[in-house]
Design a protein that fits this description.
This protein has about 220 residues and is an alpha/beta fold. It has a single domain (about 5-210), classed as TIM Barrel (Alpha-Beta Barrel), CATH 3.20.20. Helices cover about 40% and strands about 15% of the residues. The protein has 10 helices and 8 strands. It has helices at about 5-15, 30-35, 50-55, 75-80, 90-105, 125-135, 135-140, 160-180, 195-200, 210-215, and strands at about 20-25, 40-45, 65, 85-90, 110-115, 145-150, 185-190, 205-210. Strands 7-6-5-4-3-2-1-8 form an 8-stranded parallel beta sheet. Strand 6 (about 145-150), helix 8 and strand 7 form a beta-alpha-beta unit. It is globular, with a radius of gyration of 17 Å.
């Protein structure tokens, strides 16, 4: 499984201004090092414990992104090092991140996760919840988090028109939030199956796992 070749192929397909997060969840250290040696520095994990183990063992110039659903009681384990938290889907979680970041004397970058899929299973804020969060006094008083942008996951379907519609709705929300929070510059949408479509619709960050590392063994 030529990880280096896969990475080079994907990097040749996506514009230079798009951030590539290599989704390394469940993958062994050797696979991550192969991608690292091919120049990749940003890796995404969905389990805090696994990410902590990899952070401890692997080169310190790797940026670790937490891309999975995050439970509040796990934030403390990664507050010292996480570069970006993708899936912030509640004010309560944001408060916990702010608290733990303060204890670690850091400002932690976060993306707010917006529910765009027509499936019920995906996490994320709806428009009302997003508006309530951004307008809340709690949010305005937080000093140790920085909202860098939004993240969303499209429905898992072959219906390209539907995926496109979901990405377009997220981009619209992103443009609205940018008026409110000028530091927002990241729109994270698109994975192995739909990243080219996501880029066409304005994504600035794609999360790609199986197209780099091959299929996962759970």
């Amino acid at each position: 499984m030529p990880i280096k070749e896969n990475l080079q192929r994907i990097k040749s397909q996506i514009p230079n201004n798009i951030t590539l997060v290599a989704v390394s969840k469940t993958k062994p250290h050797e696979d991550i090092m192969e991608a690292y040696e091919a120049g990749q520095r940003i890796f995404g994990e969905n389990k805090v414990q696994e990410m902590v183990g990899k952070w401890e063992a692997l080169p310190k110039d790797i940026e670790w992104h937490m891309i999975g659903h995050l439970q509040r009681n796990k934030v403390k384990y990664m507050a010292d090092f996480v570069s970006l938290i993708h899936g912030v889907d509640s004010l309560r979680l944001l408060k916990e991140i702010d608290k733990r970041a303060k204890a670690s004397d850091r400002v932690i970058n976060c993306l707010l996760q917006i529910h765009i899929a027509e499936e019920e299973t995906k996490f994320g804020l709806d428009q009302d919840e997003l508006s309530q969060l951004l307008n809340s006094d709690d949010f305005k008083s937080m000093k140790n988090i920085r909202i860098k942008g939004l993240m969303g996951m499209a429905t898992f379907t072959d219906n390209e028109a539907q995926i496109k519609r979901e990405f377009q709705s997220l981009r619209k929300t992103f443009n609205e939030v940018k008026q409110f929070l000028p530091e927002c510059d990241t729109l994270s949408m698109g994975m192995s199956g739909d990243y080219m479509l996501a880029i066409q619709e304005g994504s600035t960050m794609v999360r790609i796992g199986s197209s780099i590392f091959g299929s996962r063994n759970y």
